[in-house]
Amino acid sequence: MKIKVWKKDPRAKLLKKSTEQSVGYDLFALEEVSIDPGEFTLIRTGLVIKTEPPYALFIFPRSSLFKNKSLIMPNSAGIIDFDYCGEEDEIKIPVLNLGKEKVIVKAYEKIAQAVFIKIGNPEIEEIFTSPKSSSRGGFGSTGGWK
């Protein structure tokens, strides 16, 4: 299977795996961005990516994003739908600066990871009674909140 990638901006760098065993493909900032403390911004990649079922595209933060820059992706992960590939559907990385200093993201700096995950689309059926006779506690794992 091949994933179709369009450089909406000719300066864009194609996504790339750092090593052969990497799960994710690195995504790169298109241009330098300055992010003040507490500021939210979208970092452009310059790419439009077309995926085909059954492989959906998920965008995850790089593990060094917070450690080195105090930046988080406030949505934790981005889900790129199969039909998010029009001319204006550039992949942009949402970041929030939780630090106390201004952060500079340089052009072509690695900022996120693109992971292609095989998904299914099951049929949804409404039922009218609880599917399980005993409860596990409501929220969280087996212990629940007490």
Automatic annotation (TrEMBL):
Pfam families, alphabetized: dUTPase
CDD domains from the UniProt entry: trimeric_dUTPase (cd07557)
InterPro entries: dUTPase, dUTPase-like, dUTPase-like_sf, dUTPase_trimeric
Chain ranges of the dUTPase-like domain: 12-143
Gene Ontology BP term (one): dUMP biosynthetic process
A GO molecular-function annotation: magnesium ion binding
Coiled coil (residue ranges): none
UniProt EC number: 3.6.1.23
Domain of life: Bacteria
Keywords, sorted A to Z: Hydrolase, Nucleotide metabolism
Catalytic activities: dUTP + H2O = dUMP + diphosphate + H(+)
Family membership: Belongs to the dUTPase family.
Protein name per the record: dUTP diphosphatase
Organism of derivation: Thermodesulfobacterium geofontis
Phylogenetic placement of the source organism: Bacteria, Pseudomonadati, Thermodesulfobacteriota, Thermodesulfobacteria, Thermodesulfobacteriales
